[in-house]
Amino acid sequence: MKKVLILGAGLICRPIVRYLLELGNIEVTQATRTVDKARGMIAGHPNGKAVALDVTQPEAAQRLDELVSRTDLAVSLLPYTYHPMVAEACIRRRKNMLTTSYVSPAMRALETRVKEAGIVILNEAGLDPGIDHMSAMRVIHGVEKRGGTVTGFRSTTGALPAHDSSNNPFGYKFSWSPRGVLLASRNAAKWLENGSVVEVPGERLFENYRLQDVPGAGTFENYPNRDSLPYKDVYGLKHATTVYRGTYRMPGWCETLRSIVALGWLRDEPVAGFTGKTYRDMTAHLCGAPVEGLVGNVARALGFPVYAAAIKRLEWLGLFSDELLPPDANDPLTYLNVLMLRKLSMQPGKDRDMVVMHHEFTAGFPGGKTEELTSTLLDYGIPGGDTSVARTVALPAAIAVKMILDGKIRTPGVFIPVEPEIYEPILDELEKLGIKFHEAATE
């Protein structure tokens, strides 16, 4: 019986644990500091067991090495900063590895040693990154097989509450780490637009969005996601003059987050000179304004009238309130994280989320013919069951684990799933699991 080590017990772990256990021929060990959560996911399955591992502790590397030595493949669903530590153990023990995270420079630097160890480390095998690569490459390779070239590419993804569960002023609920969402809001962005490179600093990210209609899903704000330029090479888009990757949010999000960024609420270090006790105090301090008349002062500082929707959302969230700041935190980002987690969380058993992924391609063919192609995924979570985010991140990873164990992915190295022999079987099985793209073309 093959053995898989899963590191972590976060919000997206349950589907991969259940998928692998239900295959019947894989023994799953789930290692985490929250052992009770792991036991809940394993749910008494005879092929599963939960063990303790806290990767923040000094003895973690030795404990991890012991666990890796007893497995055939390690799946790291830990924060990405811990992947290199897991990879080191896998290299030492010559064990395969999988993550759903972007390939960091630290992971890429291990390439030579990974090949020398003769192991596979497959990264970006989740949703975004993951399914986005696979579904885009299926269309790109399809165009190339017909003798065409892709000259324009846009890809945008949103993990959102379903419209019937979108019942707060932000149009957003967290189905994964709030801190991760907030930190991503500080990223600068870069993309290729009609042959020109466009760069946007992090503090102006939310000023650069457009409204976009996605068939069958609705109208969303689309803002740029990090650096899109590497994907010109990753996807082999030699002739593309536009290469853009974005993020979807409900209308109103960008203006509101731009306000939160401008006020300094995403700072993750203690604020010098702050002695207040409430969210109102912190907002006043960040804004450099007196507490009296704070709403008006903040509105003026942001260039809004006091009745602006963004101001109303900040007020609803509680940034002007007398609520006490949590005593076990000392920086604005953590204070905001606590507040948003309480007010913008999915309600178990009631709410459902949705994942919207939409690719747009412009393709040219011999004779001057052009086509506009789209590939769209619209997937919903199950109230009381797995979220769509959990399914769309964990299930492609689970299928890839099975492929590695079966020897269908065996070339040593650090990879992402952009080759047909990897993405075709994964996308085909995802369709059987109800995760399916709709493709369309117009001339």
**Major sheet strand order:** 3-2-1-4-5-6-15
- How large a portion of the residues is in β-strands, by DSSP E? 15-25%
- Per CATH, the class of the largest domain reads Alpha Beta
Radius of gyration: 23 Å
Q: Mean pLDDT across all residues, rounded?
A: 94
Total E-strand runs: 16
Keyphrases for this structure?
about 450 residues; Rossmann fold; Dihydrodipicolinate Reductase, domain 2; 7-stranded parallel sheet; 7-stranded mixed sheet; about 25% strand
SSE diagram, text form:
Layout: E1 2-7, H1 14-22, E2 26-32, H2 35-42, E3 48-52, H3 60-69, E4 73-76, H4 83-93, E5 96-99, H5 105-108, H6 111-117, E6 120-122, H7 131-145, E7 149-161, H8 178-184, E8 189-193, E9 196-200, E10 210-214, E11 218-224, H9 230-234, E12 242-249, H10 253-263, H11 279-287, H12 294-302, H13 309-317, H14 332-343, E13 353-364, E14 370-380, H15 388-405, E15 413-415, H16 420-432, E16 437-442
Parallel strand pairs: 1-2, 1-4, 2-3, 4-5, 5-6, 6-15, 7-12
Antiparallel strand pairs: 7-13, 8-9, 10-11, 11-12, 13-14, 14-16
What does this structure look like?
With 443 residues, the chain is of the alpha/beta class. It folds into three domains: 2-128 and 389-435, Rossmann fold; 131-251 and 347-388, Dihydrodipicolinate Reductase, domain 2 (2-Layer Sandwich), CATH 3.30.360.10; 270-330, no CATH class. It is 35% helix and 23% strand. It has 16 helices and 16 strands. The protein has helices spanning 14-22, 35-42, 60-69, 83-93, 105-108, 111-117, 131-145, 178-184, 230-234, 253-263, 279-287, 294-302, 309-317, 332-343, 388-405, 420-432; strands spanning 2-7, 26-32, 48-52, 73-76, 96-99, 120-122, 149-161, 189-193, 196-200, 210-214, 218-224, 242-249, 353-364, 370-380, 413-415, 437-442. The strands form three sheets. Strands 3-2-1-4-5-6-15 form a seven-stranded parallel beta sheet, with helices on both faces. Helix 15 (388-405) crosses helix 16. The model has no long low-confidence stretch (mean pLDDT 94).
